[in-house]
Structures are given as C-alpha cells and as structure tokens.
Amino acid sequence: MRVSVRLFHTLLLLTMAAFAYAGPLDSWQDTDARQAIVEFVEKTTQEGSPDFVPPRDRIAVFDNDGTLWAEQPVYFQLMFAIDRLRLLAEKHPARAEQEPYKTVLGGDLKKVLHESSIATILDIVTESHSGMTAAQFDRIARDWIKNARHPTKEKPFTGMVYQPMLELLEYLRAHGYKTFIASGGGRAFMRAWVEETYGIPPEQVIGSSVELEYKVIDGKPSLVRKREIGFLDDKEGKPVGIYRRIGRKPVIAFGNSDGDREMLEWTASREGPSLVGIIHHTDSAREWAYDRDSKIGKLDKALEQAGKENWLVVDMAKDWKRVFPD
Fold this sequence. Notes:
globular; 326 residues; HAD family hydrolase; alpha/beta; Rossmann fold; single chain
C-alpha cells in the first residue's frame, strides 16, 4: 500500500511538471509567429536537414530600440543625452545660453523631442556624449541606466525590455546562434549595460559611434570621444555595419521600423534559409500602439515589404502573453 501511494505521488508530480513546462518561448502565445520561429530554428540546427546551417554561420542580429526594449515616448538614449546636458549646464552655467543647451533647457521638452530636426538631435547627442574619455563615458552611462526611471512607466529602463525577446535570445543561443545587436543607438551607450541585460557581450554590439582620438592624459593612455559622428548605424548603414563587424550575412534578423528595412532586406537575400521578423507595436493596453504615423519607430515601408515578401510580422497584442519582465 505504501508503495502504491508513493508511486501515485511520483506520477502526480511528473504530471504537474509536464503541464508546468511550456517549452521554449514561454511568454509567446501559441500562434503562427511562435511556431514559425521554432520550426525555423529546428530545421536550421538539425543535422541532416536540407536547411541545416553550420554553427559558424548561425548569426542573428537584432535592432534594439522598439525591438528588444521600448522606445516611447522617445528614444531612451535621447533622455540620457538631455539629462547629461542638464547636468553639464548646472556645472557650467554659461553654457545655458549656447546651443544645444538653450534648445533643451529653455523650451518645451515635448516639442524639442518631437519637432526637432535630425541635425538638432545629433547636436544634442554629440555634445552630451563627447569631451570625455571612453572609460569616463562608460561609467556615466552605467550610472544613468542604474538610477534613471522611465517617465510614464516609472520603471528602470532595463525593466522596459521585452520578456518575449529575452526568451528568444536565450532560445537562439541554446541552439548555437550567436546574437548581435545592430542598432541606430550609440554603441558605447549600449555596451555599458547590454551584457547584463541581454546576455550579449560588448564585442557583439554594432551601433552608431562618435570619432575617437588616442591621447596620453596625465601619463595615462586614453581614448577621447570627439564631438563628431563616426558612423551612423541606421537604414542603409545597418548592413554596412554588420558586414564590417561580422563579415557574414545574418541568418536571422529582427527589427521594428523603417530604419531596419535595409537590414531585413539584406538578410532575406542570403542564399539558403533566412528568418526576417518585424515587431509590430499593436498593444496600447500593455505598451503603445503605433506604426505608420509615428515619428518614433515609424513602420510603413518595411510593413508593406513584409506583406509582399512574406516576412514574419509579430503582433505584440496577439503573439505575446506578456510584454515586460515583472
């Protein structure tokens, strides 16, 4: 009798464990999007499959803003840049009457963020990100990401990452894929926190950058960040940046906006299997709903191309059980 009770308990625990385990991509709904991802990974990593991809070629690239973490109401790095200018203006009051300080400090911040030209935005970023060593900038970025909070969600910015995408990164790495970030955001800014947040090391981050200059400061060799854009990793720059850094065409690429269109198009053109995905922001309840008319993360031409070329479109409202890691 005791053996039967023990056996019953064992079977009950095994049954409960089986139901509790949902397999890979637990935060994804069991929809066509999840099935397409799982089927693609299985067919490209199973030896003997006609679509098998050797481990050396298993490259997956991801945009960051709007793909791995949120990007509303404005790109988070721009918030970092504005906070940085405010701090510099406090330390050096005379700068308050100079640009871009005057624009940022004296006007309606919402207007600044949504109506400024690309030239003004770049001016804000280069001014706030230059005039220091690479090591100093890394410390400043780490401190900000640790202490800053999202203006409406009131979470740390690293709490604004997408749980389903964290699971996708882990799932791909478990199957031999090497994951890279290819973002229009600043490379040095992302390198300060992405390894801890995404499990992606600094050397696998491709992004926009300022020019660097080697100097010996107080007897110490240093790299100084200049007030000059070195490379803009957006639109047609993304395939260029990926090839310069990796030297291989990706097998998998995910983005969310027209700024990612060329990267997705280039990945889809590879010989052999490819998976190209777009994160479509359709969830106004849990996140934000936006696409064609948005200034931040505009998705228009890439969405049209996705329909014509059968790219995977992930509907955030329908395909994700949850959005953020709570």
